[in-house]
UniProtKB/TrEMBL annotation:
Binding site for NAD(+): G180, G181, G182, P183, V184, A185, V186, E187, G274
SUPFAM superfamilies: FAD/NAD(P)-binding domain, FAD/NAD-linked reductases, dimerisation (C-terminal) domain
A Pfam match: Pyr_redox_2
Family statement: Belongs to the class-I pyridine nucleotide-disulfide oxidoreductase family.
GO MF entry, a single one: flavin adenine dinucleotide binding
Listed transmembrane segments: none
UniProt protein name: NAD(P)/FAD-dependent oxidoreductase
Cofactor comment text: Binds 1 FAD per subunit.
Cofactor(s) the record lists: FAD
Signal peptide range in chain numbering: none
Protein residues bound to FAD: K50, G113, T143, G144, S145, D316
Alphabetically ordered keywords of this record: FAD, Flavoprotein, NAD, Nucleotide-binding
Residue intervals of the FAD/NAD(P)-binding domain: 4-325
Length: 487
C-alpha cells in the first residue's frame, strides 16, 4: 500500500496543475494516467488544432493586405503544416510531460486507476500489476471527456473521425464532411479546407457557435464560406453508410429546410456533436455514484453527495466549463482548497471571487474560436444575463471602423459587443469577432472579473493605432445613449 496526501486520476492540464499546486503547499501527491501525460489538450485538441490553424490564418491575413498579397502565388505546403503539427504534439511522446510532473515532486504512476471505496485507488499497471494507493486527504478525478457520437445506423462501421482523428490525421482527405456547429467543427472545417480538402459542414441548427452572441456565428459562417467551405444549416444526419472501410462514406440527411431526404458523399466524416465524461470505468459505483455520469461539484470543486468530503472533480469531468484553461483555473482553486482543508484550522475563502471559490466558471468563462475570423467571448451573453434576471444593455460597434483594424487588414470585417449591467454599470460580458481579436479578450476578462465601473474604463487609454481602440469606441457608444444599440 502506498500512502499519499492526494491522489490525482488523470494527467491532463487540470491534473498536472492540481498536482503542482498541492505539492507547493507541502502535500505529497501521486498522479495516475492510463494514456499520455498531457491529456487531450496536448495531443488531440488545443495544441495540434492550433498548430494546424496558424499557417492558414497567417497566410489569409497576409493575403488581405495590398502589397503583401502579391508575394504569395502558391498554396500551403500541407506536409509541412502536418509536420509542424506533429512537433507541437511532441510526436505523441509524453516523456517531457512525465519529466515535468516528476520535477514538481509528484509521483507519476502509469496505469488505469479505479476508485475502490473512500480514499482508495487501485491502479492496474501496463505490466498487469495492481497497486493500491491510499489518500490521507483527497482523491481528485481529472479524467476529462471524450467525443460523444450519436446513435445512428451505420455509424460505427463508417469509422468516423472525432477530434482525435481530426487533429491527428496523417493525410489530407479529398472530401471531408464535418457534422456539428460548435468550436471543434468550425476550427477543423477551416483547417482541413485550407489544407486542400473539399469540406461540407452539416449543422442541425440555424447558426454556428450557439453559446456565443448570434452575430459571432454569422461572421464565422461567412468566413468559412469565403474560405470555400460548403456550410449547410437545418440538416440532420439520419444514417451513415460505408460498405467498404477503404471506400467513400455516404451521409443520409433530413433537410429541415424543405429539401427532403438528400445524401452527401465524402472520403471521411468528422463528428463534433458533443462530449461525454470519461467516468465509466473509474470505480464510481464503489462510492455510490453512477458510472458514466458527469460529476456535480460545489464551488470548491468537491463532489457533492459523497460522504467525508474527500472526492473532488476538476476539468471537463464536472461539466462546468469544457475548456483547458478553465480546467487549469479549477485546478488552482481546488488545489488551494485541498491544501487549506489539509492544514487543520485553515479557513476557506469562499466569498465571491475568493481564493477557494470557482466563480469564473459561472460568471467569467473565456473562449476563443480560431479561424478567419476569430470569435472571442467572456462572461455572459445578453440572453444569459437576462435569463439570470439582470437588466443589461448591449453596446455594439463595427470593428471595421477602428483605425487599428483597418491597418491590420484591408476590408476588415468584425464586430464587438459589451454587455453592461445597468444597475451597477459594470461589464458582465463581451464578445469580439474579426481577424486577430483573440488578443482583445484578456482585457475584457479583467474588466468583467474586476467588476470595473464603466466610468473607470475611460481612464484605461488604448494605444493608437491598435485594434484595442475598440474600447474607446464602445465607451463612446455607451455615453452617447442607446441609439444604434442592439439587444
Amino acid at each position: 500500500m502506498d500512502l499519499y496526501d492526494v491522489i490525482v486520476l488523470g494527467a491532463g492540464p487540470p491534473g498536472e496543475n492540481l498536482a503542482e499546486r498541492v505539492r507547493a503547499a507541502g502535500l505529497s501527491v501521486a498522479v495516475v494516467e492510463s494514456e499520455l501525460a498531457g491529456g487531450e489538450c496536448s495531443y488531440w485538441a488545443c495544441m495540434p488544432s492550433k498548430a494546424l490553424l496558424r499557417p492558414p490564418i497567417a497566410l489569409a491575413e497576409a493575403r488581405r493586405l495590398a502589397g503583401a498579397r502579391e508575394a504569395f502565388s502558391g498554396e500551403l505546403d500541407a506536409a509541412a503544416v502536418l509536420g509542424r503539427r506533429d512537433s507541437f504534439a511532441a510526436h505523441w511522446d509524453d516523456a517531457g510531460q512525465v519529466d515535468w510532473i516528476r520535477s514538481t515532486g509528484a509521483e507519476f504512476v502509469r496505469g488505469h486507476g479505479r476508485i475502490d471505496g473512500p480514499c482508495r485507488v487501485i491502479v492496474e499497471t501496463p505490466a498487469g500489476v495492481q497497486r493500491l494507493l491510499t489518500a490521507r486527504h483527497a482523491v481528485v478525478v481529472c479524467t476529462g471527456s471524450a467525443a460523444a457520437l450519436p446513435d445512428l445506423p451505420g455509424l460505427p462501421e463508417a469509422l468516423p473521425w472525432t477530434n482525435r482523428e481530426g487533429t491527428g490525421a496523417r493525410e489530407v482527405p479529398d472530401r471531408l464532411a464535418v457534422v456539428g456547429g460548435g468550436p471543434v467543427a468550425v476550427e477543423l472545417a477551416y483547417a482541413w479546407r485550407a489544407l486542400g480538402a473539399e469540406v461540407t459542414a452539416l449543422v442541425r441548427g440555424e447558426r454556428l457557435l450557439e453559446r456565443m452572441e448570434p452575430f459571432a456565428g454569422e461572421h464565422v459562417a461567412e468566413g468559412l464560406r469565403a474560405a470555400g467551405v460548403d456550410v449547410r444549416f437545418g440538416v440532420s444526419v439520419t444514417a451513415v453508410r460505408r460498405p467498404d472501410p477503404e471506400g467513400e462514406v455516404t451521409l443520409e440527411l433530413d433537410d429541415d429546410g424543405g429539401g427532403g431526404l438528400v445524401a452527401v458523399a465524402a472520403d471521411e466524416v468528422l463528428f463534433a456533436t458533443g462530449r461525454r465524461p470519461r467516468t465509466d470505468d473509474i470505480g464510481l459505483e464503489t462510492v455510490g455514484l453512477t458510472p458514466g455520469d458527469w460529476l456535480p461539484v460545489d464551488d470548491t470543486l468537491r463532489v457533492t453527495g459523497v460522504s467525508g468530503g474527500w472526492l473532488y472533480a476538476v476539468g471537463d469531468v464536472n461539466h462546468r466549463a469544457l475548456l483547458t484553461h478553465q480546467g487549469k483555473y479549477q485546478a488552482r482553486i481546488a488545489g488551494a482548497a485541498i491544501a487549506a482543508r489539509a492544514h487543520a484550522g485553515a479557513a476557506l475563502d469562499t466569498a465571491r471571487w475568493g481564493a477557494h471559490q470557482a466563480t469564473a466558471d459561472r460568471d467569467a468563462v473565456t473562449q476563443v474560436v480560431f479561424g478567419v475570423p476569430e470569435a472571442a467571448a467572456v462572461g455572459l451573453t445578453v440572453q444569459e444575463a437576462e435569463r439570470r434576471g439582470l437588466r443589461v444593455r448591449a453596446v455594439d460597434f463595427d470593428l471595421g471602423k477602428v483605425s487599428g483594424a483597418s491597418l491590420f487588414a484591408d476590408d476588415y470585417r468584425g464586430r464587438a459587443r459589451m454587455v453592461v449591467d445597468r444597475e451597477r454599470a459594470v461589464l458582465v460580458g463581451a464578445t469580439f469577432v474579426g481577424p486577430g481579436v483573440s488578443e482583445l479578450l484578456h482585457a475584457a476578462s479583467v474588466a468583467v472579473v474586476g467588476e470595473v465601473p464603466v466610468e473607470r474604463l475611460w481612464h484605461a487609454v488604448p494605444a493608437y493605432p491598435t485594434i484595442s481602440e475598440i474600447w474607446l469606441r464602445l465607451l463612446e457608444t455607451w455615453r452617447d445613449g442607446e441609439d444604434g444599440d442592439q439587444g
